[in-house]
Records
---
Amino acid sequence: MDLPRTTYPITFNGRTFSVEELGVIQSLTRDCAGLPRTELASTLCELLDWRRPTGKLKTHEGRLLLEHLATKGLVTLPLVREALAHRGPRTPPRSAQGAPAPAVVGTVRELLPLALEVVPPGRHGPSRLWRELIGRYHYLGERVPVGATLRYVVRSAQGPDQVLACLGWTSAAWKITVRDRWIGWSEAQRRQALPYVVNNCRFLILPWVQVADLASHILARCARQLPHDWAARYGVRPLLLETLVDPARFRGTCYRAANWLSLGATVGRGRMDRANVLTGHAPKLVYVYPLGRDVPERLCTAPAPARGAPAEAPDGP
């Protein structure tokens, strides 16, 4: 079947694909139609040199790009094998480990020291537990994020077998008006320096954990630990943390208590809406946490992350 050729560039996940590059993608999906989707995505990333700062291929984003182009009728993809079809809404796994536990009460001091454990990639072990807890107890549930991802479970040394909280961090939102105004960067500067911004997409204190000030304490601890963990995984040391809070559900109290800055509200579009075409999203409150001094100025002058080595913005903290 002949597919229409694209006549305009398409921007996806922070990269603009030229008409020529989109033609390469169409040829790839036509000439290698027998390959599985993941292998097509890896080949696409190799051909177009689409990589993370660490040098690893952006295979996950490549697959999402292929599926995005398929919805536009620009490419045809092989059917997803049923055994590997993990896309779309998920039913959270359920186990005794993720079942409601006895109430945890007291003070933060009584829980110290806290351990923020990085959840390794995968679908089993700690990753399965994180997905279960988020899927069962977070109002947004567990979804496959686009871009870089880092997850934590939080435990207390006083009860190391019990999880107190879960956090998820992903690549920054593509465009947030109040954030971009606060930073003061241009379109070109934002494209170049956005990898230095990390988004807190999930934060869950488990419902049976009832300890005052625990949430703000965890946020403060995570702000100290995350830059090292993110740089170790992705080769980029963040300069700014951000999050979006639904004011219909929360007031952002724990973020303010942890010294995050309130910048205002979004305009009611999706966080990854590059074309300014999505509507109907409820406005969210925007909070940011600078990881050092003069962060807006440093983001405006930060070089694009170097491939294959940890990236530091000028005059890092």
---
Amino acid sequence: GSKEKIKEHEKTAVGAHMLLLLQHIKQLKASLCAAAKAANGSIPQSELNLNENKLHVFENIVAVLNKEVETSNLEITAFRRQSELDQNIIRGLELKIAELHRCLTQKDAGLSSLHKSLLFSEQASYDGVFLWKITDVGRKLQDSVTGRTVSLYSPAFYTAKYGYKVCLRVYLNGDGTGKGTHVSLFFVVMRGDYDALLPWPFRHKVTFMLLDQNNREHIIDAFRPDLTSASFQRPVNDMNVASGCPMFLPLSKLQSPKYAYVKEDTLFLKCIIETN
């Protein structure tokens, strides 16, 4: 085999080799004694005694070496046991680290969710009037055209402190009958914490405005809810189906230099819910 395999064999079979050597010495001793008897005393006694002494020395050396090998084997066994214990400790620590990592990930997700909730609560209004500032209009319009992000949702807002929870949904490149030609703007009734105490269906008049930032010609549209529509019943899911104005504003007018609906790549949408 290879040199590495030979070295490995030498390490693992030292004890066996020592036993073979001891057996070989005993066989040698027996053969010498047999030879001496066969020679009928022709070998001088002094030479026999010398060989006998040499054999004893070899036997002692082998016995000592054999004890050392046994001691080494015991130490190796102890090291192996300790190594197994260490491996078990390492595996336990790895599991603890994985658990800590999972806990940190959960806490990060919780903090992120809390941060979003704080942002939404800062942006929310509680009087039925909401002003939505949309930045990066050029990029978001392009994303709507390519289908990367077809629509945008506003933060949630409320008709009153304990009122209806609602939001806006805008398709900058249009939806339905307005797709590709108009900005489509919709109203969404959301599931709120106080729905059980509110009258249903939702029946308040909704007014949309796109603000001209030169304060000349705001775009205004309004509608009253269709009380038979599922969009205005008490929500079962997080959001009802959006309802509103698929042809709210022609895209040509949005991008026209005559108006200031988009200024510094920013537009403002306003929603007013009649709460009387």
---
Amino acid sequence: MSKSKRDISTVIIVSRDQQQSRSLRIPTKHIYRLKHYIAFVVLLIVSLSCAVFYLHRQNQHHEEERQRLLRQVLSLKQQIPEPDTVNRAQVYIQGIEAKLKKINSYLTKRGLKGFSVKSVGGVAADTSLSEEELYSSYDDYLARVLTGVAFTPMGYPKVSDLTSFFGYRGDPFDSGRGEFHPGIDFRGHRGDKVTCTANGTVISAGWMGGYGNCIRIRHANNYETLYGHLSKINVKVGQKVKVGDKIGAIGSTGRSTGNHLHYEVRKNGKAVNPISYLRLN
């Protein structure tokens, strides 16, 4: 069985001036399929256009995302303190910690319990201040507190029980009479050390009538402390003393019925109740 001849169509192309012509021999089936070819080409063009549009949109979206991330990074960078600010804040923090340790030292030397601070600031902090200004204000405040604690009589000159209190009491030498006791008395043994309760200057050190061997120390803000009936005096007039320094020893000199320490706090020359100064609050 012989093959059939292929169906061939001839297409004649004539120039505009009709001077020349050209013929093409094309299988007839391709002419019939021309609309399918055109549809395929159109579909291909549409598909490529959609792909280009999609890629363009994706690229635009990525650029917008990149710009957003850059803005976030810039914002975070602006929130990070400059090295100088961090260093200055650290200096203030170290200063605050040093002052707190010093205050604790003054308290423990007076026989009082120290305290700890886990964080500086709180809900009452002025949020209108910068971090550096806030640390600076706390540092200044603690400096004032430190000065007050150092130079204000506070705590125990001798850590022991009290045997007599401030105010009127019966006269230990005459049970039929009353007397005003201008201080408080601490129990102790002869030779037990006596420490000063605030920084100051010794203004009197020696025999003082009924007080026996007695020491008077002047402090800031018109405060004065008195330590009486001592068996020994370890300081001299004009000497500068600090919190916790040993200034003498317990005894029973002067108008005394036994070994103890008589302690007074005076404000503007007038005796005040020392009980109010034994604790920080």
---
Amino acid sequence: MGVKKKKEMQVAALTICHQDLETLKSFADVEGKNLASLLLHCVQLTDGVLQIHYIKQIVPLLEKADKNGMCDPTIQSCLDILAGIYLSLSLKNPLKKVLASSLNSLPEFFLPEAMHRFTSRLREELNTTDLYSYRKVTDNISSCMENFNLVLHFLQKSLIEILEENRKCAGNHIIQTQLMNDLLVGIRVSMMLVQKVQDFQGNLWKTSDSPIWQNMCGLLSIFTKVLSDDDLLQTVQSTSGLAIILFIKTMFHPSEKIPHLCAASFSGLHQCPRVVYEQLQEPLLW
């Protein structure tokens, strides 16, 4: 009886752009012991499994640094490159999970700088105009929630364009299936973000002229249109219905007004969510 050979883990190697590569080369020390040297050696490998070994060395190396490391341009640049690497990796790549674990385990005094670099890289991604890159960007949104307004604006833009592309591709079931998946992911990420808005933004967004409020209204309008569009998959429609309930529950207080709100203003909600706000006879009590 033959011995079954153990299947080796397949991990796609990470890569970086030429500019980031040159940055690492410029900061790498002669001894090859600083963070830039570690990352340079890592990205030059073509074996993803070996790269995991190097990624796991990031935190132990930074734990040796003191708080002055926050001002070290080498560490700042490396954190920026790490953020770019993380956002470039596929969700299915084991390297993304390992890198996420390392980033979450950074010494506390490095976290603000890491978040700043992460936000900057994500902001660049949010500016994409490539429709078929939206899914990748949406997958990365949950990793960086500090700039809610920017993220919500991207979600609103992407969902509108996905719906329009789906209309144009009527009859092309392969493309429409992918677009439906992208639409579903976008709606679910929106729901996840709105549950976090209170934690990250406090009460600053709770005014009708707040950019966050306006973007949430825009998303609410999109979800309502999706719910009423029978050409879309039932799963997408039902998820949109849940999103509507969640958004209304989050945005409108006190909760006793919600039944009146739904009864009196749902038709206005479909046309323009701002009507919902304006039709309330009494001021909202935040």
